[in-house]
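@channel sequence for tomorrow's demo:
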Amino acid sequence: MITIAGKRHWLWREVDQDGFVLDVLVQSRRDRKAAKRLLRKLLKKNAMAPRVMITDKLGSYAAARRDMGLSIEHRQHKGLNNRAENSHQPTRRREHQMRRFKSARQVQRFLSSHDPINNLFHLWRHQLTAASYREARRAAFETWADITSAALAA
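structure tokens (generated this afternoon):
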């Protein structure tokens, strides 16, 4: 949940098994219609449906899945949802730096660009040796430099 201009909005995130954020959606409601919108967006963006969907215990996910006729396995568990919950941390830090977000459109625009960039620098430090971590980090910064220099040249 995120507060924008005194109103509660819900931050819906689609996160894969490796912790990479696939998509973000900011909505003022947390009901079946909102869950269907999130699922439609996920299915439209990806070539195939996920094998397993892990969510919190909100019943809207199951209702939306039934309405759409999806046959994916749905797991609702408090602990399994941690990957999605932890993906909110960079957003919270950024929200604090920006002195709160002013509108839902601003949040959606910011997160739609922020999360792919954050994914670029998202490395599993505990699974890499120091040398391979430095190499992966160097490659990420080179990629970022290529992207930003191409954007400046255009």
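heads up for whoever presents: The helical segments are 32-45, 59-68, 82-86, 89-97, 104-120, 130-153.
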